[in-house]
Amino acid sequence: MPDQSIPQSLPETRTPVDAAEGASSEPPSPERASEGLTRRRLLGTAGATGLALGAVGGAVGYTAAPSQATPLSSIGSGEAMFHVKHQPGITQGLQARGHLVAFDLAAGAGRKEAAALLRRWSETARRLMAGEATATGDTGVAQDAGPSSLTVTFGFGNSFFARTGLEKQRPVALDPLPEFSSDHLDKARSNGDLWVQIGANDALVAFHALRAIQKDAGEAAKVRWQMNGFNRTPGATAHPMTARNLMGQLDGTRNPKPADPDFDQRIFVPAQSTKDPAWMADGSYAVVRRIRMLLDDWEKLPVTAQEQVIGRRKADGAALSGGTETTAMDLEKTDANGDLVVPINAHARITRPDQNGGAAMLRRPFSYHDGIDPDGAPDAGLLFVCWQADPLRGFVTVQRKLDRGDALSKYIRHEASGLFAVPGGAAEGEYVGQRLLEA
């Protein structure tokens, strides 16, 4: 779990002032009328509808709603754009709820079926991210909510290219990840032909998108594995801050930021790449790992011992060498006994880019909790997702270093893994992956 932080800004995201101001004064087109109310329009009529419901429910303790339209909340109104240079769900801030799901193409399905599927998925993602209902068969699960910063991101696994006859278009960067000593991987929950990341700041909005994507797959693809995650809800703290993981640590203090001059170079494939196929221009590579935290063992450690493992103070994320969370770590500082203040095997020391030849990746994880084992241990940890222009230079370089002596390794276990090529965003009128599938 490298020591890097998620940016707090939300690039390529817009927030309407409120539902009343955002609603169009023009009459709906016949096409729009046939769709019925969108989620956003339904919110715009919440005041009038709520008044009627309040009157009916008054006898059982409901209070009448105001007669004026109720605006979307700040959380519900957040909207990420679908047609952008880089796919959504990469540079946006952490979302409160997430679903990761991998699909395998069905027997007999090939390039034609994959293209049709990505076309369906892209249209569904575009509509849902705009706060609209799906084109057909909408379940109504999220009809009362705004877009809630929903993002849907699509990627291709190594096996996808053989299944579709596109082996010559498979990036070298998609070669299988090497084995690591901390791996205890479940193959059934690893890799896959296709990968979808869904994130939103409302759990029902996220589930609605997951269900729609699954239904769209139809007979073309079947779910291989699916994982559910969560983060702190935006606005739950007094001010924006780095998120905490289930170990209670501030997790992600040194994440690269979009404002960094070399951010795009580290995270995204350049348009004129000499080693990546043209269809990957403006795309990125996602490494996905299900990392179980051995919380019973971790929580037995006193806070001072936990801080020695991480190399940072638990309370505020500051390096043990002093200062605040953002103060540069002094790797040479020693205590009165001449010992390094930040231990040589501390997680934060080992993952620093300047200790790994400049290797960096954009971490955008979710925590997870999948119940309690028979022995009482929680099945909980981190759905680690990181983005980089080159996974060999990013994730693999850092993980090899961690494999050789990270103090945190004793308290975590990598249980599932995947690597996916995530193409650039779809232009207006395009679907994600069109430049690959229709080349």
Automatic annotation (TrEMBL):
Subcellular location: Cell envelope
Chain spans, region Disordered: 1-38
Superkingdom assignment: Bacteria
Keyword Iron: yes
Residue ranges annotated for the Dyp-type peroxidase N-terminal domain, each copy included: 87-231
GO MF annotation, one: peroxidase activity
Span of domain Dyp-type peroxidase C-terminal: 242-426
Reaction equations catalysed: heme b + 2 H(+) = protoporphyrin IX + Fe(2+)
Annotated signal sequence range: none
Family classification: Belongs to the DyP-type peroxidase family.
Protein name: Deferrochelatase
